[in-house]
Design a protein that fits this description.
3 domains; alpha+beta; 11% strand; 15 helices; Hypothetical protein af1432; two-stranded antiparallel sheet; 49% helix; 5-stranded antiparallel β-sheet
Amino acid sequence: MSDQRRLSIADLVVGEPLPFDVYGEGNKLLLRRGYIVESERLAEELVQRGVFIDAGQAERLAQAKKEAQAARLEIPSALRFINLATKRLERLLYNLNNEDNAQGKILEVAKALSYAFDINADIAIASVFLNQAAANYAVRHCVDTALIAQLISRAMKKSPDEIQVTMAAALTMNIAMLRQQDQLENKQEPLTPSETEIIRTHAEKGVEILKQVGVTDPAWLSYVELHHENEDGSGYPLGKEIKQIPQNAKILALADRYCASVSIRRYRKTLLPSAALRDVLLPDGKPSDPMLAAYFIKELGPQPPGSFVRLQNGEIAVVTRKGKAANTPIVHSFIGPRGAPLSFPIQRDTGKELYAIRELLSGQQASLRFSMQQLWGEEAAL
């Protein structure tokens, strides 16, 4: 071997295959590339023995490793963009009266969420279920609603400008009751008359606040004003019926209710995604807007990314992306058939009989500890 150097402890990773051949005295091959150093003791013995590796090969491998690490750093993270947008929105909403160009800044937040969606839509939707600690409920709920509204709007092939305005309305829909919403999260007793009044009037007052800070887009203002109207005219503040409500305002309203239903709340039971779809879209057993209901069911399905399931073989898993059919998503199992944690998440196709979904689980029932990066890689890094 013409160019060699001694093996150092830095060259070895316990439990991983050797990336090079290892030689002893007289260039005698001791260990082939791919051999797994299974213990720290073996690693130390090799170093103490004074074995050699091909210096040129080691240098090329080190360079390749650096390039791979640099490439990983360049991979944009959808989750990071969502969290940065959420923090930005939080600062904006609680200080909106002191912001210059509030309209433009809120639209920038919507654009950042759109970019996260472009990176990985599955991560964006999964964040609604798995990223609830990213901010307080009042702000996070607006972001979640914007993401779901974006999912449906994109599926309906609406224009980018139209989608941005709908998302901006979602981000600002509760501007008139943000602080009260934070307080209500800790409330155990029934609402007082004054609290009920704040809720009933927040849509109209939200429009007034937005106008004061320079929001002039009539569609944006309209969607905020109408996001609590019901199809039968029983909503507030105007009691409009379905024919009087713009489609984008209906998308916003349904997304708002869906996200509220699946969120962890102190005073309200969290619904499973399938139950949330049923309650939001079919309150009386039939959809008031069949076309919108069809889009919500197709795009979210009973087991959207980020939901927890138990498989037929007993494994507990997290849904990570759509499968060939709405009810056969791709999942990653964390808990084995006998209840023991798996060494690493294993991908399963629920279209196969053994891995078919037996039931949906709540987060408390699943009781899993993991990071989204474990499931989606660098695109879900924090």
